[in-house]
Amino acid sequence: MISRTIKKEIIKSLKNKPVTLITGARQVGKSTLCYEIKKEFNFNYVSLDDRRERQQAINDPELFLSLHPWPLIIDEVQYAPALFDVIESIVNKEKIENGSNNGMYILTGSQAYNLMKQVTESMAGRVSIIRMSPLSTSEIYNKDERPFKIDIVKNNERIRDYKIDVNQVYNLIVKGFYPELYDKSDLDINSFYSNYVDTYIERDISQLINIKDKMKFQNFMEMLASLTGEELVYDSLAKAVGVKVDTIQSWISVLLAGDIIYLLQPYNEYSIVKRIVKRPKMYFCDTGLACYLAKLNNAEVLKKSIFAGRFMETYIVNEIRKSFRNNSVRENLYYYRDNNQNEIDLIILDGQLHCIECKSGISYSKNDVKAFNQLKNSNYGIGESCIICNTPSIYKIDENIYVLPITVI
Question: What are phi and psi of 54, to 5 degrees?
């Protein structure tokens, strides 16, 4: 079984908060990780995927929680929102009576929007929220995972015995990063994603919005997958799918809530506000799901296709996001594009702006990062920046600008 980096953050949360909420898409490994914690820390466990347990939690939450005493893990808690108020009462009582209430409940769920709304209303200040992603490449290869940073000394140390060639990268992109695909080596990838999409539409989508034509929604997902790494243009999608713009907006919000897609916002600063593109870029949170939906089921086909660059970009952005998420570090990520078509794929803001280009090749020069100059008058200033690509080694192309292998993430 692959060790998950985020486990240490969950254990840290148990020591500091009464309730820990773990959110993330279906099949990212929430239940498996919780079962590890159950055995290690002697938690009780109940899943609301069980119809009888779910009905009892909905109909009589007080009785449900008396039958399942803390320390308790409740899997798929979004099915019974009535539990939140009762849990709040229990943790408050424990604090008053015994002075400490840390580590009482672990809750998991795969519909982030509804969960966040309920938590904000019921348990503000009492809950730590952990956002769980699919596997990272570091986890798959059993490498120490730290928040990504352009630090040439540490980057060189990391890549010394950690090499992934371009063919392996494309195989990873097509396979995707759901743990079950790595736990079961004989599992057919297409069958896995076919079942995933069917389950997602039937169980999650049908609960959140009324979709009269589920086939149309699946066609929408397939079209969206082929646009990963591109600006999100609602009007164009509405015309292509044959629905209203507000329907597309509703469907996008549902995909965001389920952690299926991610929106990268444009970098905005007063000195450049008049010339920037203001639409977000959209990325699928798992490249394997996007490849399946876009019918790119073969690494060689993907590598030679027009989609190669945007799927490589999606992979790199996702891996950087995972490195922050898995260490509970806030993601201050943006992109830049202006009306002169100058573009920077990714910007990390940490007191300075760190500009990043995501490429699928090996050899690059400073001509490939001219767009970085568009931010030279930024209030924050430009720090170390880079191109991340399939180069086997690090090299410098300009002052404070480097070409880095994918394995630095």
Answer: -65, -45
Distance CA 161, CA 151 (A): 17
Question: Cα separation of 22 and 16, whole Å?
Answer: 15
At residue 134, the pLDDT reads 98
Beta strand 353-358 with 261-264 is unpaired
Could you tell me if 280 and 231 are in contact, meaning their C-beta atoms sit under 8 angstroms apart? yes
Query: How far is residue 25's CA from residue 193's CA, in Å, rounded to a whole number?
Result: 13
Strand, coil or helix: 61: helix
Round to whole Å and give the CA distance between 205 and 217: 9
Rounded-to-integer distance, Cα 342 and Cα 286, Å:
27
Q: What are phi and psi of 179, to 5 degrees?
A: -55, -35
Q: Tokens representing 167?
A: 């063919």
Contacts of 19 (CB under 8 A, 6+ apart): 87, 91, 104, 105, 106, 107, 123, 126, 127, 128
Please choose, from the candidates 252, 284, 14, 273, the residue with its C-alpha nearest in 3D space to the C-alpha of residue 174.
284
**Nearest-angstrom CA–CA distance, 85 and 61:** 9
Mean pLDDT over all residues of the chain? Answer: 93
Coil/strand/helix, residue 188: coil
Q: What is the pLDDT of residue 354?
A: 98
* Helix, strand, coil tally for the chain in percent (to 5): 45, 15, 35
Can you tell me whether residue 142 is helix, strand or coil? coil
22 - beta bridge partners?
108, 130
The answer to whether 405 and 390 are in contact (CB under 8 A) is: yes
DSSP, res 114: H
- Tell me if 288 sits within 8 A of 178, measured CB to CB: yes
Residues 340-389 have pLDDT tens digits of 889 999 999 999 999 999 999 999 999 999 999 999 888 899 999 999 99
Q: Is the peptide bond before 280 cis (omega within 30 degrees of 0)?
A: no
On the question of pLDDT at 146 being above 70, the answer is yes
The pLDDT tens digits for 287-345 are 999 999 999 999 999 999 999 999 999 999 999 999 999 999 999 999 999 888 899 99
Quote the pLDDT of residue 206: 72
DSSP letters for 70-89: SSEEEETGGG-TTHHHHHHH
Cα 169 from Cα 312, distance rounded (Å) = 9
- Of 107-111, 255-259, 388-392, the one with minimum mean pLDDT is 107-111
226, 307 Cβ separation under 8 angstroms: yes
